[in-house]
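User: I've been going back and forth on whether these two constructs are worth ordering. Before I decide, could you fold them both?

Assistant: Sure. I'll take them in the order you sent them. The first construct and its structure tokens:
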Amino acid sequence: MNYLKYAFGEIVLVVIGILIALQINNWNENRKLRKQEIQIYLELKSDLQQTKSDIQKTVSEHRKIFELNQDLVNDIRNKKPNSDTIYNSFTNSGLDFQIIPKTSAFENLKNMGINTLSNDSLRIAITNLFQLDLKRLDDELGMNRSGYNISKLLFPYQNKYLFADYSQPTKYGFKNADSIKIYKLKIKDYDEFLRDNNLLKNLQLTLYNRGKKIDVEIQTMEAIDRVIKKIEEELKSRNK
């Protein structure tokens, strides 16, 4: 009888020891996961801050060209004389800028599993931002792959009306290559340029598309700000 009590006591001790070991192991694993989750949030925040900075620079450039484009439309409508200002507006109106969102942290999260993030609402917000808002930003409303691409809209007219003035050669240098001789471009057939209704139509379409791009970019920055705020709140709650 005493032997059975002793054996039972030994079994209980072994079971308790196993349970304690499992509890310690689970505690260590949970601690490791929490530390990993915090690191993911920090990396996501860093990527989003970098992406927002890139968007801000692009919005600034788009706004400058938006104004040039608007001025050019007004100058053509008012039949302004040919000038360097009109030339610069015409050549710059077709410029476009691509934003490439920084997504390395989100790609790492997908590899580990989206459910690594324990905060459900924040996980959904982050997923929507990267898979919807930033995807839309990268494609800019589908314009980059369509006939409404800003550069493509104006290139035929730039190719038609710009010519190289061989009387004004200049050298253009490169950092890691020999300099080259190039010639200043000018607008030819200026009276036809002013009367070209298709040119004016495409300039206005370009103006509209650039305005839509600016709207999308600013909306995306606002979405980024909201997610960054939620990440900061989550990190703050974990430090309490």
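The second construct, handled the same way:
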Amino acid sequence: MKTNRIFPILLTCAVLGLAACGDEKPSTTAGPAATSASAAPSSAAPSPSAAAMSDKELCTAAEKINKDMRAKLMTVVQAGGDLTKKTGAILTELGDRVTELAATAGDGKAATALKEFGAEAGKAGAAADPGTAADNPAMEKASKDINAACQTAGAPTTF
């Protein structure tokens, strides 16, 4: 029964992610930062230039990570198999990547919300039932906070 609950949640996330795809072009400075951060997570210490990342650049990079994770999620859903284990791994990776990205920014609203979301995604990914664990008020609040901060910064996201 729990697996039946995970599928609609995952499908909703994927559909919302696809619906959020717009004509907006990602920042040329944010794309490579997210890519290099995911390629070497333990050695990617924030540099002085990365610490100066604007909220708009931060949000653009975060949305790119979010879309990447949603694509992985859709692949997992379509492939079938052990959704619980694979969903946990995706949530954990999402949490790690978002937290790492947020660490390259200051203490603005977007960075703070991304840190909170990353922590919640990590907890959900480590849970016995990640789909159910991700469906909680703290993660929902962090998602709304990211979306609100990024909307204000001029780079809407769909977390």
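Notes on the second construct follow. Confidence is low (pLDDT under 50) at residues 1-8, 10-51. The longest helix spans residues 55-79.
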